[in-house]
Amino acid sequence: MNVQNSGHGPVIREMRITPIAITDPPLLNAAGLHAPYALRTIVELETADGIVGVSEIPGNESTDEALRLAEHIVVGKDVYQLGRLQQELEVRFGKDTSKDRGDAPWDQRRLVHVFSALEVACLDIIGKLVNRPVADLLGGRMRDAVPFAAYLFFKYEGAGGKLGFSVDPNAIGWAAARQQQAIDPEGIVAQARAMCEAYGFQSIKLKGGAFAPDIEVACMHALHQEFGEAMPLRFDPNAIWKPETGLKYGREMESILEYLEDPVRGQENMAWLRQKLRTPLATNMCTTSFDEIPASIALGSEDIILSDHHFWGGLRASMELARLCTTFGRQLSMHSNSHLGISLAAMVHLGAALPHLPYALDTHYPWQSEEIIAGGPLKFQDGEVPVPAGPGLGVDLDRDALARLHQQYLDCGLKMRNDEIEMQKIHPKWTFKKTRW
Ligand SMILES: [Mg+2]
């Protein structure tokens, strides 16, 4: 039967692409400073029978344009035809290469984002059709709740959004704490205490690369002193260290780290350092695509791959990556960017279905103060998110919030992420350097 344009059943009738802007505090990283708003794109697919599937990906004008260009490929497809959809998108846009990933601290490849958005929305629809959660479509849940880590940032004072570098005097608890400046060990420990108290996290990650290594490593030692041996700690300077810096400070943190994330740039440098440190090395920057797996294995560049379904081409691709990791002695965990509840729900379904989950996953979720899913933010219990109940992703779009955050996107004027430009508003001579220390 030709299901293309058959006009009934699980055939996609309409695709809606809505860019949104969400309030984001002034967080620091190796690439500069977070803008007052982070961008996301919400994709809705609606079938001929009126079933709607949703997904969320990092916002970028170029990805939105690619999604619009893909519309004629998507509309008329059966939601089960994911292989065919991917193949036609590859023909239309060309396969992403590892070169497309480039040297930026975040991923701007187009096809992986486009396919991830479409795949997750299709799986949401399929889940609703067969009355099963997405985790069941990925092989079934291995666990009922998925652990996440506290994700700490150096930051300037401020709430982001309209408040910018000002704070909301009425905020309390974590909502107040996340507005505080954190540029030294005292500030980082206070941030960690407040976040762990609010969410119950049982692992801690600090995003570094913002200050000189001795300051940042002092923060890791302060966290170790504050939380003790039982709290697993990770540190991620976003590949901004030279190999000798990675070796010096990697050794200084050897006794306190669960893993060290992207201390240096490139698979060769990671492999060199990995030979010299006992601490496991993790990456979301040196091995970032299936194309890079052969070199990763040949060189031995990392112990842990931090997958991200938005960057690896969807949830099923991430399950395939898990199998490769098992085969080649890697562990798999998860990377994150500023995101809302649709992405979190997808991450939880994937985390629930992964055969092995040795590490708590990354999430930026506590930094966000807005939401687009009905019923408000997903709840954490002791640092874990239970798999959402209900078929598909188990979350529904709050259409009023979607309209409001889309208006915020139009008003804020941002079209893509550029942390360097934001940093230059504070420090005009600051420039991004791939390797700084
Ligand atoms: Mg990272």
UniProtKB/TrEMBL annotation:
It comes from the Bacteria. It catalyses: D-glucarate = 5-dehydro-4-deoxy-D-glucarate + H2O. It holds the Pfam family MR_MLE_N. Pathway: Carbohydrate acid metabolism; D-glucarate degradation; 2,5-dioxopentanoate from D-glucarate: step 1/2. GO terms for molecular function: glucarate dehydratase activity; racemase and epimerase activity. Transmembrane segments: none annotated. Residues 185-280 form the Mandelate racemase/muconate lactonizing enzyme C-terminal domain. It is an enzyme of class 4 (lyase). Its EC number is 4.2.1.40. InterPro entries: DgoD-like, Enolase-like_C_sf, Enolase-like_N, Enolase_C-like, Mandelate_racemase_C, Mandelate_racemase_N_dom. This is glucarate dehydratase. It comes from Cyclobacterium lianum.
